[in-house]
Design a protein that fits this description.
about 100 residues, 3 helices, about 85% helix
Amino acid sequence: MKSPAAGLPLRYRLAVTSRSLAALLGGYLLASAVAVCLSLLLPGARVDAVLSATMLSFVFWVLAFIWCFACRSAWRAWLGVLLPSAALGAVGALAYWTKLS
């Protein structure tokens, strides 16, 4: 007996695999970048800022999952996760280096 996925083309399977990896790995990267940026930029005590940033990062991870499977192509899914991650990484680095001085 054949499995239901046996009739799907290889290109479709690779696209779903790529979207899944974008959602998992790219979403984790985006969530960690959000946590770092917000923990550096939120006002208040450091403990409260880190806790709030960590809780909000899970929301961004879920949004990254939704984005990756709502896109038209796997390339857009990767770009939609990696570009904001890079931008948030730059903002986080800038916030870190300005707080040191």
